Amino acid sequence: MKKTIIMAAAALALAACCSQPKFDGPTYLNPNAPVEERVEDALVRMTLEEKVGMTTAQSKFSSRGVPRLGIPEVWHTDGPHGIRPEVLWDEWDQAGWTNDSCTAFPALINLAATWDKEMSLLYGRSIGEEARYRKKDILLGPGINICRTPLNGRNFEYMGEDPYLAGQMVVPYVKGVQENGVAACVKHYAVNNQEFQRTQSNSVVDDRTLYEIYLPAFKAAVQEGNAWAIMGSYNLYNGQFNCHNKKLLVDILKGEWGFDGVVVSDWGGCRDDEEAVLNGLDIEMGTWTNGLTGAASDGYRNYHMADPYLEGLRSGKYTTKELDDKVRRILRTIFRTSMRPEPNYGRFVCPEHYQAARDISAAGVVLLKNDNNTLPLNVPEGGKILLVGENVVKKMVVGGGSSNLKTAYEVNPLEGIRNAYGDKAEVVWARGYVGDTSTSYNAVDTGQDLTDNRSPEVLIAEAVEAAKDADYVIFVGGLNKSAHQDNESTDRLQITLPYGQEKVIEALAEVAKNLVVVNISGSAVAMPWADKVGAIVQGWYGGTETGNALADVLTGKVNPSGRLPFSVPFCYEDGPIKTERQYPGIKEEGDEYWQTHYDEGVYVGYRWYDTKEIPVQFPFGHGLSYTTFEYSNAKAAKPSMTAAGTLKVSVDVANTGDRDGSEIVQLYIADPEASIDRPAKELKGFEKVFLKAGEKKTVTFEIDAENLSWFNAEKHEWTAEPGEFKALFARSAGDVQAEASFELK
Ligand code: GLC
Predict the structure, then answer these.
(1) How far is CA 492 from CA 295, 398, 487, 574, in A?
(2) Which ligand 1 atom sits closest to the C-alpha of 267?
(3) pTM passes above 0.90
(4) Which of 186, 192, 295, 535 suits a disulfide with 221, CB 3.0-4.6 Å?
(5) Residue 639 and residue 552 share a domain
(6) Among the three residues 558, 580, 598, which one is the final residue of a domain in this structure?
């Protein structure tokens, strides 16, 4: 027996040494050595200049490596929706490469609206493959800033008004990206909820609000998603710039949460030499010499963490303590990405990515209203569909700011509907209104000519005339990522539809047999015309396949399961922001920066409307299906739970309609005996469940004390108070279907 064992061991040893040729190079170059050993081995070989060099940009989208040691430079790329075209070394304009037309995936708000974690993983994997194929190491996304106001210009790039939804939806995206050896750089950390004066605005937020509303999604990305990078935001928080904010970066992110990746500044977000060194910034990216203004040849030497840092080290102002921490994090990122153990090469603009873009976008389209089963479209053979609106044809992957993309093609709604009907129906288009006729951004052009000099009256008359004999009229309007219309660096100026669209809708409502309104936007639009319209659909900037995705839902090929990731109020004034001080902020005598006071505290979105019992047009979480669902038998597995334990709560959901469909079962927790003011209920669980017609399933959630807690700022800890709690099973924040009570002992 003994002999056999010895022989087996020898065979294993022989096999092992043959399968892995002994690496005799330096440890840091050994792909199979533990990352931390590679980090330490590289660090000791680097000179002071090489270490400092790694902490700043060397071009628009790259930061230094160590050529002498064969450690590659780090390539960063926008953005959250697709891989930005190559830009010139020092310019924002595209470089004119012919191999960088990417897959444009749906805007992140569209992904959030799917409430589907599988879709988020598919998204992350797909965009991660494209980043890898383009040899990018850090993807500058996803963005997860909470929708505090529907006016924020970048809501379309984020994941809605609820921290739990954003947190649960960002984790799979981050994991999917990083499976490809690409770092997700979650942004913009933190309390960056407006574009107005974004580099000069100080967010004044109390700790409870910070921990309950504005941090949870970032915490989930770091602790559950294991994000390898975080981007500091342009604004200040409690008086310090966020690219070097001690409390956010050192105390919370790297301290409380144990983040071991890199903090990258927003472009030009670093504003101070000493704070940059001491407060947790690891890579300073930017545009100009001092980050924000002006340019000079090799301006990068003037960056706060370039020559000024080197001088500070040489003069003894700084030790290498902070520098070594920064460089360890940068090296760790490199050994996770470009120098990762297992080389893979990604994929780019492949059919699977186009299909993913289409499926994700369709899964996030929200059916808001559907009177008399206006939808799905039921067009008689040889019937006529009239499409009205500029967004029927306007290609919107181009524009919007840094998430701007160059794609090989973009299917607009006109093409999508025509693809769906072929010659079975006449599909015609009337402009209806003229909005934004620009077609290019950073030298990327859609190739369209949207010029139209006709008057609104003429345009409306044309549309009304064409509507008279149409079986369906589908108005496709909304916003368009141009200035003030869902756009980086400018906020919206109102939440009503721009460009006179309401007049067009009302004129069509007078004559249309079946009127469907599709609102394309990245944030809530007021809909005073809602009662005059048979069906309303919330569409999104759906990316390359947006027109096909919309057609899939309108025709019924896809049964809609999208749910609103934000509340749609009747009017802006109903919302929680009542003063200039809250938004856009105030700048009083002596203030160096604008001061935005988050006086509404935790009462953001449905937390406000719901708790204050203010009716809304459509609540957070709302969305209809082409089938119907019934909830029953809600129960808690036990009558009580302890703070250290968990409790299962469940509800039965049946598909009571005549076609298969998916329901997003939402779990909200109410704390009726709380000793402090708390929102009436808060989202603490959701599950997408597919049900065949007539099928019933039990959906179960496991609750723990964290789901019951509020943040006690005085004690700086989460607190779950003993007493009664309610598990509310809902179709939306405004539509609780069943509930189960239980007690926390
Ligand atoms: C922009 C954006 C940020 C983007 C970066 C690089 O200003 O705020 O989201 O990733 O700069 O383009």
Answers:
(1) 30, 19, 8, 17
(2) 11
(3) yes
(4) 186
(5) no
(6) 558
